[in-house]
Amino acid sequence: MRAFDPAKHTVEGRRSPEKIAVLSIDVEHDYDGGRTDALDRLPALLDVVRRAGLPLTAFVEGRLFTDRPDLCARLAESGADLQLHCYDHRRPGDGAASLRQGVEAFERFLGWRPQGYRARRYGLTEELVGALIAEGLAWDSSVLPGLGLGAHPARIFRRADWFVIDGGLAEFPVAIWRPSGIPFTHSYRRLMGRPLEALLALVASLPTVLVYDMHMVDLVPDGRLAEAPLPLWLKGGYLLARRGRGGFDTLPALGERLAASGYRLSTLADCHARLAADGNGRCGPTAP
């Protein structure tokens, strides 16, 4: 599928009047396969963020509503901001059909429709943008405007805090260190380690609207990486990352660090409500 081309659309950059940080997690089967060894630790993660008072946005893989209703129910009970991930992480390319599958599974289980979406491996496509608008979703967080797996090359996505596509779909990009383009996500932070991140903090800056992404396999590696249906180079990246900072017990310190830097911790649903809605379901005015 063709990657989303901003030149073929109206893409308006917007500014935020405050610093907002969102901790988000892609809730999916482990390593693009069918195992759930790491995913099974999700209740422990939810206990950690609850005790630390950290808001959490969870993008749930659509097939989990059928395959693991126990975990989906636990997520709903936790008070997390539940939104939709791709329907099946084993299938490349999110499109209209897979989005419809995911929306239907989400609505059957939870009784309401998702507001937001995140594509598999940040793969925002032309077809997906049209489908998101047609399905009435309000916002998306699929663009990684930097370097690495799934990154979008268009520089427009580094020029504002968030964006409006075709007058209606809000886009909240995943955080990067500017101007380097290095992602500020849990997997990349583990891969870099503390010394490189400390250096980046001296020469680069984080976005005003900061969307932090993580996965259960980043937080609690399950030891079954060799069995995963991933290319060897990606498995190597995971092995290197395991030398760095690990589990979800590091998240409270991250929350404290962001708060000390002036960020208000939020969910993406609340972020959208504050920044985009004007009471009529439309996106607010463009900031200068």
Task: Sketch the major β-sheet.
Answer: 5 strands, mixed
Q: State the low-pLDDT regions, or none.
A: 278-288
Query: Secondary-structure element sequence?
Result: EEHEHHEHEHEEEEEHEHHHEH
Q: Percentage of helical residues? A: 25-40%
Count of alpha/pi helices: 10
- Silhouette: globular
| Distance linking N and C termini | 34 Å
- In which order are the strands of the major sheet placed? 1-7-8-6-5
Rg computed from alpha carbons, rounded to a whole number of angstroms = 18 Å
**What is the number of beta strands?**
12
Mean pLDDT: 89
Q: What proportion of the residues form beta strands (DSSP E)?
A: 15-25%
- Which structural class should the secondary elements be placed in? alpha/beta
Short description:
With 288 residues, this protein is α/β, with parallel strands linked by helices. Helices cover 35% and strands 16% of the residues. The strands form 3 sheets. A 5-stranded mixed sheet has the order 1-7-8-6-5, with helices on both faces. Strands 2, 3, 4, 11 and 12 form a 5-stranded parallel sheet that branches. Strands 9-10 form a two-stranded antiparallel sheet.
Structural notes for this entry:
This protein is an alpha/beta fold and 288 residues long. Helix content is 35%, strand content 16%. The chain has 10 helices and 12 strands. The protein has helices at residues 42-52, 64-67, 69-78, 96-110, 126-135, 186-203, 216-219, 232-241, 251-260, 268-275, and strands at residues 11-14, 20-27, 57-60, 81-84, 116-117, 139-140, 162-165, 169-171, 176-177, 182-183, 209-215, 264-266. The strands form 3 sheets. Strands 1-7-8-6-5 form a 5-stranded mixed sheet, with helices on both faces. Helix 1 runs parallel beside helix 3 (69-78), helix 4 packs parallel to helix 5 (126-135) and helix 6 packs across helix 8 (232-241). The longest helix is centred in the C-terminal third of the chain and has 18 residues, at 186-203. The chain is globular. The two termini are 34 Å apart. Residues 278-288 have low confidence and may be disordered.
